[in-house]
Hints:
Elements: H1 2-5, H2 9-26, H3 30-57, H4 66-92, H5 102-128, H6 131-134, H7 137-140, H8 145-156, H9 158-164, H10 173-176
Helix pairs in contact: 2-5, 3-4, 3-5, 3-9, 5-8
Amino acid sequence: MEFLQSLNILDIFIILSTFIISLFAAVKGLMKNIIQLILMIFAVALAGILAQKIQSAYINNFIEDPNTAYIVSFILVLLGAYLIIFGVMKVFFKKNEEKEGLSNTFFAFFIALIRYLFVWALICSTLNSIDAVKEHSVWENSQLRPILVKTGNFAYNSKVKIQETNLKDYVPKDVTGG
């Protein structure tokens, strides 16, 4: 009960918006929500890998601050990946006649809830890099902000972990030519 009393306006907005959007998404069906969650994770991983390359090739010419340039390139790659991935998905699920029961709708709601909380994590992580936002009392007193920022930072830094893995160590030498 103490947690509920300590929620501020930002926390309530995040909870209500996530809940309402997830209710609408639950109607779309379980399979669509599962595939959208998987594709969203793939899009974030792709954005994490390509953002630094796009930043150094194009964005640094327009934006001098490296952190802002990285966030802009990450968001641009993420939006591009979303448009491509979800456009292709829309074609394949054009005539989805999936019959949903109560349990499938409940699981679809739960998966949509996870998906939209992940989106909020990316938004909060981005906003946390802006000093004017960090100093605001609503932002500082938020109960959900630390968890969402930590999750969003993990998604932004996923490129580092992926790029540290050298696949040549796992692929036979006759395949790599080395």
